[in-house]
């Protein structure tokens, strides 16, 4: 079929809750994807950082096929031979004490909310049903009802109420605001080390260290949502490492499977996850042997192939090239590793127009918050690939 035929079918039978670029993809390899007419594109979104290891990574694919031939699902009613090794490898890699595997990123966030509330009642002594969790303005943690209950994006909240109570919103990057917001009923602070969906918003230097200190002083749980920023994307395995801090709970997902399968996890100290007892939380597919085998290999690829270090080096090279683009309509180029945002002034006419032109030139990007383009290619990208990309990006963003 022609691309327009696929698009018409999708428009007729699918819910209209997305506004994708009109390209119909059929194949991927490494940093490249191809449409149904055979045109090649450099993927500069990586499925929102889910394919950090590159499209259809052969090692992960082989692990998935091998495990799929043996055992895919047992439920957690029984044990399997992939779960324990994943726990051990994740804990050793991230210096965590405990792991709770789930499927989607939103499920990991929901799991953390449940765990810290229970911790607040049973360990901290917060009165029943009074627990508060502090979050940041312009956050993005998922799309379930409880999660959008603390979103400040009208698109996420309009006509979806009533909402789940128990959340308090403060400004991102303001440690003093966190300290002022904490009460006797506060159980946790949930924050992204870098706000991805908000437009690659990087907090001031020292912010993560400050919030770690405040959470320690006030006796509350620090939760870092690293579902997008984690697993090499920012040039460190976890973005929290840029400031040398560790959260009490760290949430990972997306690249935990290299794009092959929905896998997420809550990484925790023993005290917080220790409050969960049998029957109080779970998932039919969470921790299934297929997911675990895929995740184990996805982690090995990140580490053994040097993708974390590559993200740091090539990301800096990419940002340098983007900052050389001469266009007064560009407000700022910012980022860390291979998570980069190019923000335009409001009078530039929006970022979507540039994404459309980049698509025609062979690069797939996505605008966020109207005025920002996010560049986040797979971590297997090379300097030569970046040169190829900049040759096409520069004239378009210079217009």
Automatic annotation (TrEMBL):
Keywords: Amino-acid biosynthesis, Aminotransferase, Cytoplasm, Proline biosynthesis, Pyridoxal phosphate, Transferase. Its cofactor is pyridoxal 5'-phosphate. InterPro entries: Aminotrans_3, Aminotrans_3_PPA_site, Class-III_PLP-dep_AT, Orn_aminotrans, Ornith_aminotrans_bact, PyrdxlP-dep_Trfase, PyrdxlP-dep_Trfase_major, PyrdxlP-dep_Trfase_small. It is found in: Cytoplasm. GO terms for cellular component: cytoplasm. Belongs to the class-III pyridoxal-phosphate-dependent aminotransferase family. OAT subfamily. NCBIfam families: Orn_aminotrans. Catalyzes the interconversion of ornithine to glutamate semialdehyde. CDD domains: OAT_like. It catalyses: a 2-oxocarboxylate + L-ornithine = L-glutamate 5-semialdehyde + an L-alpha-amino acid. The keyword Cytoplasm applies. It comes from Pseudodesulfovibrio cashew. Its main location: cytoplasm. Gene3D superfamilies: Aspartate Aminotransferase, domain 1, Type I PLP-dependent aspartate aminotransferase-like (Major domain). It is an enzyme of class 2 (transferase). This is Ornithine aminotransferase. Its EC number is 2.6.1.13.
């Amino acid at each position: 079929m022609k691309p327009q035929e696929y698009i018409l079918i999708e428009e007729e039978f699918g819910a209209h809750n997305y506004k994708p670029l009109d390209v119909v993809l059929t194949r991927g390899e490494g940093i490249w994807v191809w449409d149904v007419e055979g045109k090649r594109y450099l993927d500069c979104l990586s499925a929102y950082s889910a394919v950090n290891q590159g499209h259809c990574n052969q090692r992960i694919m082989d692990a998935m096929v091998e495990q799929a031939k043996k055992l895919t699902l047992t439920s957690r009613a029984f044990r399997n031979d992939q779960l324990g090794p994943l726990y051990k490898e994740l804990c050793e890699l991230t210096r965590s004490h405990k792991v709770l595997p789930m499927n989607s990123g939103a499920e990991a966030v929901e799991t953390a909310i449940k765990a810290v509330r229970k911790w607040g009642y049973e360990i901290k002594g917060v009165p029943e049903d009074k627990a508060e969790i502090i979050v940041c303005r312009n956050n993005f943690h998922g799309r379930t009802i409880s999660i959008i209950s603390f979103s400040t994006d009208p698109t996420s909240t309009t006509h979806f109420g009533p909402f789940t109570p128990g959340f308090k919103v403060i400004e991102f990057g303001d440690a003093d605001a966190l300290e002022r917001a904490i009460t006797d009923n506060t159980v946790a602070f949930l924050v992204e080390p870098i706000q991805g969906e908000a437009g690659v918003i990087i907090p001031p230097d020292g912010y993560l260290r400050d919030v770690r200190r405040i959470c320690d002083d006030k006796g509350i749980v620090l939760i870092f949502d690293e579902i997008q920023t984690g697993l090499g994307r920012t040039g460190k395995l976890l973005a929290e490492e840029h400031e040398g801090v560790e959260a009490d709970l760290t949430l990972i997902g997306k690249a935990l499977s290299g794009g092959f399968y929905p896998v997420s996890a809550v990484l925790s100290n023993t005290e917080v996850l220790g409050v969960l007892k049998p029957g109080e939380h779970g998932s039919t597919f969470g921790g299934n042997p297929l997911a675990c085998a895929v995740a184990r290999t996805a982690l090995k690829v990140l580490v053994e192939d040097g993708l974390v270090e590559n993200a740091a080096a090539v990301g800096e090279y990419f940002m340098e090239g983007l900052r050389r683009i001469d266009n007064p309509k560009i407000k700022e180029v910012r980022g860390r590793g291979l998570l980069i945002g190019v923000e335009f002034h409001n009078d530039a006419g929006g970022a979507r127009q540039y994404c459309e032109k980049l698509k025609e030139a062979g690069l797939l990007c996505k605008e966020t918050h109207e005025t920002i383009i996010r560049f986040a290619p797979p971590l297997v990208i090379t300097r030569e690939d970046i040169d190829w990309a900049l040759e096409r990006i520069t004239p378009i963003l210079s217009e």
